[in-house]
Design goal:
Layout (H helix, E strand, L loop, with lengths): L2 H71 L1 H8 L6 H14 L4 E5 L5 E4 L12 H8 L4 E8 L2 E14 L2 E10 L2 H8 L4 E6 L17 E12 L4 E12 L1 H30 L7 H11 L17 H63 L4 H27 L8 E4 H12 L5 E8 L3 E4 L1 H18 L4 E11 L5 E9 L6 H4 L17 H11 L3 E6 L5 E8 L8 E2 L1
Helix pairs in contact: 1-6, 2-3, 8-9, 10-11, 11-13
Length: 568
C-alpha cells in the first residue's frame, strides 16, 4: 500500500468515524433532552392548570359570598323573597341578571330551600323551575365546586360552578354561580402555542370542546375535575388533557439526519483532498483554526473547531471549542437574566399600580360594610353616593390593564381635567381626624395627556405623601397655572405634606428605581411618576427639609388658557 493511500485512509478514518459517532451521540442526547424538556413543560402546565382552576374556584366562592351579603342587606329582595309580594316580583326575577356581570360570573341561580329557582341570571325563564339536584351535587363535590352544563335561551354552555347559601330569617336561600369554561377558557389555561389543553367529559368519546389539533404522537398528562351531571343526577369526573406534540422534535431529527449524511459526504471529500495535498499544506490546519476563530462573535457562537487531531493542533482546537461552548452558555445566561429582570420590573410596576387602583375600591367597601352594620336602611343611598368612585376606579384599572396589555405606558393624548382627578383621589384618601387631604384648585386646569397616566401620577404622589405622615397629618394638593419662557402655558400640581421630610442624600435617590426608605416599600412609586412625566412632556421637582415635610411639584402642558379663579 502506498504512502498516499495510507494517508488517505488515515484521514478518512480520523474524519468520518468521529463525525459519525458525534452525530449519533448528539442525535440521541438531543432527543432525550428535548423529550425530557417537553415532559417537564407539560407537568408544569398541569400544575398551573390545577392552580388556575383553584384560583377560579376561590374567586367564584368569594363572588357568591359578596352576593350573599348584598342579598341580606337588600330589603327589596327580602320583601320579594320572604313575602312573595307581587309588586316586587319583577325585581326578584331580574336580581340575578343585574348582579351576575358585576360579580364577574357567567351563570347565577338563586333558589329557595325547596330547590325552586327564584332568579336566574344566565336564563331568566328558569324562574319557578324546581332543580334541587344541581345544588346537592355541587355540595357533595370537593370544595363545593364542579363543572356543570348551564342552560341558556340559545342552548347551553359549560361552566365551573360553586354553591353557597345565605340565611334570611327562618329561611335559607341557595346561590349557584360559576364562570364559563369553554374553548376560550382552555386557551387561557394553555399559555403556550405549542401546548394544547383539552377537556373530555364523561359519557363522550371526545367532548365538542376538546382541541383536536393535537396529533396522535404527543406527550400527554391528565388532571381530573368533578362534573355534576344533572341529567343523570350523578357526580362524575371530567378530564383535562395537556398535550405537547412531538412533531417539531421529529422534524428536527429528520433535518439533523439529512445534514448528517451531507456532512459525512463532505468530510470524506475534504479528507481525500487534504490527503493529496498534505505534504505541501502542513500549515492548513492552523489557517483553518484562525479563519474559524475570526468568525466568532456574541451573535455567532456555533463555530465547530473539532478536527479529530491528537497533536498540539487538536489540543488547540479542543480548547477553542470549550471556549466557544462557555461563551454560548454565558450568552444564554446573560440574555435570560436580562429577560427576567425586565419581566420582574414590569411585574413590580403592575403590582404597584393595581394596589393604588384598589385603594378607593377598598375604602368604598369599608364604608358600605360600616353602613350596613350601623344603618342598613341607608345602604342603597350610600351605595348610590359611592358608585361613581367604584365606576371610576374600575375604569382606571381597565384602562391600566389595556395599557399593560399593549406593553405601553403612554396612551392617546387627550384633554384631561386634572382638578377632577384630584377631587376623586382626595375624596377617597381623606380620613377626617387622621389624614386631612386639602385641595386648592385653579379653575379649568386642563392638561394634555391620557387619563390613566395623569391619574397614576396624582395617585402615586398622594399615596407617597400620606405614607410619609405616619398615620396622622395633612396633605395639601394645589393646582395653578404658570407661564414659562416663550409664552409656554403649563399647569403645576403641588402635593405638600406635613411629614418628617428628607435630607439632601435621600432627595437625590428618591426617583431611582427600587430605592425606598419604607420597610414594606417597593421603590417604584416616584420612579413611575418620573417616567410618566417624561412621557407626558412634563417635569417633576421636589423640595424637602427634615422636620418640615416635603413638596412635590409636577408641571403638565396646559390644554387651554385657564382663568385664575381658585376654589377650595
Amino acid at each position: 500500500m502506498t504512502f498516499r493511500a495510507r494517508i488517505l485512509i488515515a484521514f478518512l478514518l480520523a474524519t468520518v468515524v468521529p463525525i459519525v459517532a458525534l452525530g449519533l451521540l448528539v442525535r440521541r442526547e438531543m432527543t432525550q433532552r428535548l423529550t425530557s424538556q417537553y415532559e417537564r413543560r407539560v407537568d408544569a402546565l398541569v400544575r398551573v392548570v390545577e392552580e388556575d382552576l383553584a384560583r377560579t374556584r376561590v374567586s367564584v366562592h368569594e363572588a357568591l359570598a359578596e352576593i350573599g351579603e348584598e342579598i341580606i342587606a337588600d330589603n327589596r329582595f327580602r320583601r320579594a323573597a320572604m313575602t312573595e309580594a307581587q309588586d316586587e316580583r319583577r325585581y326578584l326575577l331580574d336580581y340575578a341578571t343585574s348582579v351576575m356581570p358585576v360579580a364577574g360570573l357567567s351563570m347565577l341561580q338563586i333558589q329557595d330551600e325547596s330547590g325552586r329557582i327564584l332568579s336566574s341570571g344566565h336564563f331568566r325563564n328558569d324562574y319557578d323551575r324546581v332543580n334541587p339536584n344541581l345544588p346537592r351535587l355541587l355540595g357533595s363535590a370537593p370544595e363545593r365546586s364542579a363543572l356543570v352544563r348551564a342552560r341558556t335561551p340559545g342552548g347551553s354552555f359549560l361552566a365551573l360552578a360553586c354553591v353557597d347559601s345565605v340565611a334570611m330569617g327562618n329561611r335559607r336561600f341557595v346561590l349557584v354561580g360559576g364562570v364559563e369554561a369553554e374553548s376560550r377558557f382552555l386557551q387561557d389555561l394553555a399559555r403556550d402555542g405549542a401546548i394544547r389543553v383539552s377537556l373530555e367529559l364523561p359519557g363522550d368519546s371526545l367532548s365538542a370542546i376538546v382541541d383536536t389539533t393535537v396529533t396522535a404522537v404527543a406527550i400527554v398528562r391528565t388532571s381530573t375535575i368533578p362534573f355534576a351531571d344533572t341529567e343523570r343526577d350523578a357526580l362524575t369526573t371530567a378530564t383535562f388533557r395537556v398535550a405537547h406534540a412531538t412533531t417539531e422534535l421529529r422534524a428536527l431529527r429528520s433535518s439533523i439526519d439529512r445534514w448528517f449524511v451531507i456532512a459525512i459526504a463532505l468530510a470524506a471529500l475534504l479528507a481525500t483532498i487534504a490527503a493529496a495535498w498534505i505534504a505541501s499544506r502542513l500549515s492548513r490546519p492552523l489557517v483553518d483554526l484562525a479563519e474559524k476563530t475570526s468568525r466568532i462573535d456574541l451573535d455567532r457562537l456555533d463555530v465547530d473547531f473539532a478536527n479529530g487531531r491528537k497533536d498540539e493542533i487538536g489540543l488547540l482546537a479542543g480548547t477553542l471549542s470549550k471556549l466557544t461552548a462557555r461563551l454560548r452558555e454565558s450568552t444564554v445566561q446573560l440574555k435570560d437574566a436580562e429577560r427576567r429582570a425586565t419581566f420582574g420590573d414590569l411585574a413590580r410596576q403592575v403590582n404597584h399600580d393595581i394596589k393604588n387602583g384598589l385603594t378607593p375600591i377598598r375604602n368604598v367597601f369599608r364604608h358600605l360594610s360600616q353602613q350596613s352594620k350601623e344603618d342598613p336602611a341607608k345602604l342603597p343611598g350610600a351605595f348610590d353616593e359611592r358608585s361613581a368612585t367604584l365606576d371610576a376606579s374600575i375604569a382606571y384599572l381597565e384602562n391600566l390593564a389595556t395599557n399593560y396589555a399593549r406593553l405601553s405606558r403612554r396612551g392617546d393624548r387627550t384633554r384631561c381635567d386634572i382638578n377632577d382627578v384630584v377631587r376623586k383621589i382626595s375624596k377617597d384618601r381623606n380620613d377626617p381626624g387622621k389624614i386631612d387631604v386639602v385641595t386648592k384648585l385653579a379653575g379649568n386646569a386642563s392638561v394634555w395627556g391620557d387619563d390613566v397616566s395623569v391619574r397614576r401620577v396624582v395617585e402615586n404622589l398622594v399615596a407617597n405623601a400620606i405614607e410619609s405622615l405616619g398615620g396622622k397629618g395633612r396633605v395639601t394638593i394645589t393646582t395653578e397655572h404658570v407661564r414659562r419662557d416663550r409664552g409656554e402655558s403649563r399647569v403645576r400640581l403641588t402635593v405638600a405634606d406635613t411629614g418628617a421630610g428628607m435630607d439632601a442624600a435621600t432627595r437625590d435617590k428618591i426617583f431611582d428605581d427600587f430605592y425606598t426608605t419604607k420597610p414594606e416599600g417597593t421603590g417604584l412609586g416616584l420612579s413611575i411618576v418620573r417616567r410618566l412625566m417624561m412621557d407626558l412632556d412634563g417635569t417633576i421637582a421636589v423640595e424637602s427639609e427634615i422636620g418640615k415635610g416635603s413638596r412635590f411639584m409636577v408641571e403638565f402642558p396646559a390644554a387651554e388658557i385657564a382663568s385664575r379663579k381658585v376654589e377650595s
